[in-house]
Write a structure and sequence with these properties.
heterodimer, A: mainly alpha, 3 domains, four-stranded parallel sheet, 25 helices, B: mainly alpha, elongated
């Protein structure tokens, strides 16, 4: 593969495409996919390459327009360098300066991170995907810029990466070849965090140059802040969705449930990723059934942003992150709820409970907890009655990185599954050592150009491989199997993976959330909440 | 007072100042967003699988249980045994462990030398009791430290040169740092194996250095050893070898930093202050020149 020999210095070269990806180099999958052959990643046409930069690996994630004039190129470089300076400024980057500085200045280049990275591994070892490659490129540029000692000392320290517009454009794309899963950081003996450095790089591009994938910025946080949801759903449409959900619950289960909206002073405000409403309405419905059955005082919010817990700013931009999370806090405060419960969305957990813990201040500091712990309380303390025999099919659990590695929520979801799924089995590895689904950090929603080709073949391959291994004892399509993924973005990625690899037809593998399994097992609900007959049609 | 003696004072002072300046460089950064990574060693009863207090229903109503003993145990395993490298990069650990163990022994050796310099009378033979034990221990720590550091540094150098994925990321400075160690410990070994096996000459010299009185001239070999070691000590905090301090911040201020932010607490006060910082980012969605609090709460159109 051309990508094996690339050196950091070459990021600046005017060589067209730096790396050619070849599907033959991608590692083989387990049974029954030994003979699986991927089609090549769709090539970007010559005409499109005139307009959009694709000089890294021929994959388009960010869509940077090709500069037309030298002045435009110079401006791109100048803005990149000024943005780099701001990353080191206590005022501009107080949010992450300390962890960023520590990771930038203390890497010993031992390359331990490479073995932890599923993207590097599943690409067949493409050099540019090595976690150290990206971080070291930024490190060398920054050191060279910050050094007062000049040429010879810079050479001695290896700070020799020329910054051309090609370097800048390739780094922008390279920032979107890492899912920020932080598995490399966990294995780093120094404690350096290449995931954080990648996020800071994304931040530089967004906050200084206005460069970010449209799915995250224009159609993500901007739409979220102006319409109310990154799905484009406004408060009126949300109420329609809830009405439909009530009807659907009655059709599925015979239960008449009035879903509470804007109930001031409720114990619980539950906030879902709005993607659930459109793609997996059964998740929202299952929560409503569970909460009503348990007799909880709860509500949804129809306020702007109050019905969509996503915060894509977490992936690329502190300003957008802060704007969204402060709106969320305001919604909770105005509803006077006792606590906010995070639905099954990994990055929302982190945005609300971990990172957000230092932005929900003073009277906006409403307590937040995970739906996973609440479900554990309801199921394991028998506040709802379950019949595990209804879930007597093989189930494995995908651990969302944001919930496990970044927040340490490991056992509640397992305790629930052990109680309701007799054939529950773990993936290897799991818990804090899990592998990312390959859709993390916004990848699951980046659907344009040939990015999904890359996401299916490389970013998500490790997870698909893990799923197959977990089900090897019953891998035939005649046995229905369930991948439990308590996170909307992970579910989106696993949905796309299963579809790409034809896993339902070939191996009988379906996917869904945790609460659906709970409701499927509840004795007070008509059997069949998970409708296997519908799966093949999805 | 000779030049070698002055160099020792200068190196020691430079080392202390450089360490303090660099440590303050990290310590004085503003409070940051939470960015811990599990397992967190002080999570009582949960650290072994990576759990946190977030696993508790209504966690904010539960007492926070900190396991300082486990945290110390993890720190000891990381510092003394290089647990992280052993778990995740065994081939590197084979060389990195003896190198670090050697350095720890050399630190112990230096401490024993200084104790000897302060307590053993000049010219008196240390032939019995604790004096003899001190001299013996000093010799063991010295030779073991020099030998292990040499073996480890040579192994690390060969690995960095021989493994393609390491070589391509290493700069001349990375090789120089290891070579510097190799030269210093090799000279030390040669000097003491050939003429001062119980380190008496060095101890006497250090007694004068400690007492701030002019020391007798050193033999050429010992003088070379002292000069090289002094330069290495002064050089270390300027390089990535500063990780002996930085790692404290990497673990305690980031990776294991899971302090919650209760309403009305000190952390909250620091965060409110941080929101007053000015923003100069120039992205099209950011109004430069306002404070973070203003930028984060302005309406987006």
């Amino acid at each position: 593969m051309k990508g094996q020999d690339v050196k950091i210095k070459q990021l600046c070269e005017e060589c067209g495409q730096l790396v050619e990806l070849k599907v033959e180099d991608i590692p083989k999958l387990p049974h029954p996919y030994e003979d699986w052959e991927d089609s090549p990643i769709t090539e970007i046409s010559a005409e499109k390459r005139q307009q959009i930069e694709a000089g890294l690996d021929g994959v388009v994630g960010v869509r940077i327009p090709v500069p037309r004039t030298q002045a435009e190129k110079d401006e791109l470089v100048a803005r990149f360098l000024s943005g780099l300076d701001r990353l080191f400024s206590p005022a501009d980057n107080w949010t992450f300066l300390q962890p960023f500085l520590l990771s930038m200045e203390n890497c010993v280049k031992c390359n331990t991170c490479a073995a932890a990275c599923p993207i590097f591994e599943e690409s067949g070892g493409v050099e540019i995907y090595r976690p150290l490659f990206r971080a070291e490129a930024l490190r060398r540029i920054a050191r060279s810029r910050n050094s007062r000692l000049g040429g010879l000392i810079n050479k001695f320290n290896g700070n020799d990466v020329p910054v051309t517009w090609e370097t800048v454009a390739r780094l922008a794309d390279l920032a979107y070849r890492c899912t920020l899963c932080r598995r490399c950081a966990q294995d780093c003996p120094m404690g350096c965090d290449n995931g954080l450095i990648t996020r800071e790089l994304r931040k530089l591009f967004s906050q200084e140059l206005g460069i970010a994938p449209d799915e995250l910025h224009k159609d993500g946080t901007v739409k979220h802040l102006t319409v109310g949801s990154s799905t484009g759903m406004n408060p009126h449409a949300f109420k329609d969705v809830i009405e439909f959900a009530e009807e659907d619950i009655e059709d599925r289960t015979g239960l008449k449930i009035k879903i509470p909206i804007d109930k001031e002073g409720a114990d619980i405000l539950i906030m879902h990723n709005a993607g659930e409403f459109l793609s997996w309405p059964e998740n929202l419905q299952a929560f409503a059934i569970l909460f009503e059955n348990a007799g909880l005082s709860w509500t949804l919010s129809s306020d702007m942003l109050g019905y969509d817990s996503v915060n894509y700013g977490l992936f690329y931009d502190d300003v957008q992150y802060a704007r969204v999370t402060l709106k969320h806090a305001q919604v909770a405060k105005e509803l006077k709820v006792k606590k906010v419960v995070m639905g099954e969305c990994g990055h929302a957990h982190k945005a609300f409970m971990a990172v957000g813990d230092r932005l929900w201040l003073e009277e906006q500091n409403i307590p937040r907890e995970s739906a996973l712990t609440l479900m554990e309380d309801l199921v394991c303390n028998e506040k709802v009655m379950v019949d595990p025999s209804r879930n007597d099919f093989p189930v494995t659990l995908h651990d969302p990185c944001n919930i496990t590695r970044s927040m340490g929520i490991i056992q509640p979801q397992r305790n629930v599954l052990r109680k309701i799924c007799p054939q529950f089995r773990e993936m290897t590895p799991h818990g804090v050592n899990n592998y990312c689904c390959g859709g993390g950090s916004g990848f699951a929603i980046m659907q344009s150009s040939n990015f999904p080709d890359w996401r299916m073949r490389i970013a998500g391959r490790k997870k698909f491989s893990q799923i197959l291994v977990a089900f090897q004892d019953s891998i035939g399509p005649e046995t229905h199997k369930y991948v439990c993924a308590p996170c909307s973005n992970c579910k989106g990625q696993i949905r796309d993976l299963l579809a790409y690899y034809g896993a339902w037809e070939k191996a009988g593998i379906h996917y869904g959330g945790l609460v659906e399994l709970v409701v499927n097992a509840m004795v007070d609900v008509r059997p069949g909440f998970i409708d296997w007959d519908e799966v093949g049609l999805m | 007072m000779g030049a070698v003696q002055i160099l020792i004072y200068f190196s020691a002072l430079f080392f202390v100042v450089a360490v303090v300046v660099r440590a303050l460089h990290y310590a004085r950064t503003p409070v940051h967003m939470r960015w811990e990574l599990y397992p967190v060693a002080h999570e009582k009863g949960r650290a072994h699988y990576g759990g946190s207090i977030f696993e508790e229903s209504e966690w904010w109503t539960k007492p926070r249980q900190i396991d300082h003993v486990n945290e110390l145990r993890e720190m000891a395993a990381e510092i003394l045994l290089l647990k992280g490298v052993r778990l995740h990069n065994r081939r590197l650990w084979v060389w990195s462990f003896p190198f670090h163990l050697g350095v720890y022994l050399l630190i112990g050796w230096l401490v024993l030398l200084l104790i000897g310099a302060l307590t053993l009378p000049a010219g008196a033979a240390a032939t019995e009791g604790w004096r003899r034990a001190l001299v013996l221990l000093t010799a063991i720590a010295g030779f073991a430290g020099l030998g292990l550091t040499l073996i480890g540094a040579l192994g690390l150098l060969l690995r960095r040169l021989g493994v393609d994925e390491m070589r391509k990321f290493n700069a001349p400075a990375d090789y120089f740092n290891l070579l510097f160690f190799i030269v210093v410990v090799a000279v030390g070994l040669a000097v003491h194996a050939s003429g001062d096996p119980d380190f008496t000459r060095l101890r006497l010299f250090l007694a004068d250095v400690m007492a701030l009185r002019p020391a007798a001239a050193l033999a050429t070999g010992t003088a070379c050893e002292v000069v090289l070691a002094s330069l290495l000590i002064a050089y270390m905090p300027l390089t990535r070898m500063f990780h002996f301090v930085a790692k404290y911040f990497l673990y305690h201020e980031v990776r294991w930093s899971d302090d919650p932010n209760p309403r009305g607490g000190r952390l909250e006060a620091r965060l409110v202050q941080a929101l007053n910082y000015g923003v100069s980012w120039r992205g099209p969605h950011i109004q430069s020149g306002k404070s973070w609090a203003e930028v984060a709460t302005e309406d987006v159109e």
